[in-house]
Amino acid sequence: MVSGKAHALHKRVEQLCTRAIRWAELKRKTKAEKKLAITVFSFPPDKGNVGTAAYLNVFASIFSVLKDLQKDGYNVEGLPETSEALIEDVIHDKEAQFSSPNLNVAYKMGVREYQKLTPYATLLEENWGKAPGNLNSDGENLLVYGKQYGNVFIGVQPTFGYEGDPMRLLFSKSASPHHGFAAYYSFVEKIFKADAVLHFGTHGSLEFMPGKQVGMSDVCYPDSLIGNIPNVYYYAANNPSEATIAKRRSYANTISYLTPPAENAGLYKGLKQLSELISSYQSLKDTGRGPQIVSSIISTAKQCNLDKDVELPDEGAELSVKDRDLVIGKVYSKIMEIESRLLPCGLHVIGEPPSAMEAVATLVNIAALDRPEDEIISLPSILAQTVGRDIEDIYRGSDKGILKDVELLRQITEASRGAISAFVERTTNKKGQVVDVADKLSSILGFGINEPWVDYLSSTKFYRADRDKLRRLFEFLGECLKLVVADNELGSLKQALEGKYVEPGPGGDPIRNPKVLPTGKNIHALDPQSIPTTAALQSAKIVVDRLVERQKIDNGGNYPETVALVLWGTDNIKTYGESLAQVLWMIGVRPVSDTFGRVNRVEPVSLEELGRPRIDVVVNCSGVFRDLFINQMNLLDRAVKMVAELDEPVEMNFVRKHALEQAEALGIGVREAATRIFSNASGSYSSNINLAVENSSWNDEKQLQDMYLSRKSFAFDCDAPGAGMSEKRKVFEMALSTADATFQNLDSSEISLTDVSHYFDSDPTNLVQNLRKDGKKPSAYVADTTTANAQVRTLAETVRLDARTKLLNPKWYEGMMSTGYEGVREIEKRLTNTVGWSATSGQVDNWVYEEANTTFIQDEEMLNRLMNSNPNSFRKMVQTFLEANGRGYWETSAENIEKLRQLYSEVEDKIEGIDR
Asked: What is the distance of C-alpha 866 from the center of its chain?
């Protein structure tokens, strides 16, 4: 007789074998008979959001992929002529009334059929009641949204389901998919009978459903949902951490796609005028017009709201020449920071590599980093050496607003762009495509002719730059250029659909690690035990020292006693553990590697060497970090507890100081009181604040703070190996109540504070103020290591920089508008995320909302473009402006609010097809 355990194991092995057989069948079946289910995401649930994905033009990409598959012999019968028509097919129900608010219904599944096809359906009733429920349902049937073309089905993945329910958001430690979600995957596998599912873009909900973190079993929802269908997943190359979750939890074969080529933000309106005034000042400062120009610069800077970033004297104030230069230097430095900030313009389309000239900004930034392992010196360093300076000194001087250093840094930046543009032009054909870089490089590097970069630099002050160092750098840049413009995104998809091998490759930031390119690879991350690296530790020390320095200036010369910070999975993969190393350096310990390079031990740094007190930390690990780096959480927890037990004076060891106070207050031991490494409960992700903000389903800020505390107060304990995360809310609250500063890192030019909702979702600034006995708001800082010159800014400065370079920047929003439907959604998303920052930190200036309203609502032409391209997203944008005002984040005129209310009514009518 077979025991129950043996039977379950046999069943599981059979299931795993079936999945392997299904992959093998992809090799055997003909292309014409193969069925493919393309799954797109819609978040938050709204017709204006169908096809959400990071930096991807989803419908243009699907159209491009289907055209290619059709040529290749796949049956895509009835595919429309344009990607716009494809959007209309999917988001409008042709059988309903004109301009229906419903998506196209592909299939109606009766409750009995659903229960027969979905063996785990009864398990969902605990959270969602009896089927069909009210999500993806018409009250009788479960509805599958999408559209079929021949053997290809384009379906809209249902969302988590609790977005609009604040109570479920508040109390859900973990949940389950709803009936509509389960019905979608049952349809794909058992009714449509897909040979493969292609999840289109970063990222959906399937892989974040409750269940184990790794090693799925048939009681884990991602496993039950995906069933035995081969899962292919287009994923952004810069997001290896979430791609790893998709592989571990939904068995995905990921195929990386390129994020759009980065460009410099440039200057516009008053900022451009300021730049011109500064040029005039430099040529006329020694004439009688100097003071007059300074006065114009000060008044223009105030009109541009730069007075929050730079201390400006009153207009017409008597200033010495030295003081004038310092004011101008600081304004100039701020303008250069805005102008040179990198931003991806537009959205990527699968299978369309960037042109050579589009790749220039990416190459300029690749060239700005030293690469000691390859014996490559950065271009700014080589140029600085030419004039007898060290680039680090120039960076420091520019940060302080020393006018001659700001000007020199501008000249170095322009010379770098010019030299690289000259090189790229020499490698392109008349269509702007890169062809035969290797051959062209050989001829460029041949004897007897000047290399293009040398030619360019010969007419600048850097004409004596070291030719050997330049040659080594440009040989490397030539290799990078080939990779940037190579393209295998469609080729790899076709290989995957034929059950063939897709070449693996690292994910991450192509500027830090060009080996991420070309895209079209099956993404992997890194050996989690190898971080932090020595280089990461060096970078971390610089950032921590700057953070402490900045906090001392802002806090009357006092060291911060506690810093509350966030550890992200993706960031630590891209930077090889920089933010992890920051935590270790704050508490004053050093990671120790074994002979295999694995980091599994730490040792304390002496107080003499540290030269400051040990700073206490409260670490909020993202759910993804928890899944990928459990060993590092163990390392951190051991490190903090070790520091708490050191026999040192409490005024030099704030970890010990607070642990002793908390042990006494809570009646627990010092080791338990020194618990500082927190995350979500196992199998659960995020604080859900982002869902509440994106769906406007929250009452007040206290509710958001309760969500954060209830979902993020699960602690890791190195003294209880294998026990998983346990709730320690009291310790969490007491530790947070000592925080003088909150802190996050930005490590990639592609993803900044308002690009995604994760950053504000993890921000505890207002929460800490509520928990502190003195009610004092903590300082909030953001480290920016996206360029060679790492910066620590306040959160408010970073939000302003983000607004100036993205939301309010014509270069960015016109780039987005050029993609139509998807572009409007991208603009709306940035505005919603800005409101998220107001809600969690209160660090958004009024003028940001005022300028956004002027740009998108007061301008009639822009308003009509937004409304016609994507009325649903435009309605959400208008609603977000009204919400910002209603919640007290934006003070504006009664006329503005009245206009927004009228607009909301107009766009509602347009969506519902009502003519008034």
From this structure: 24
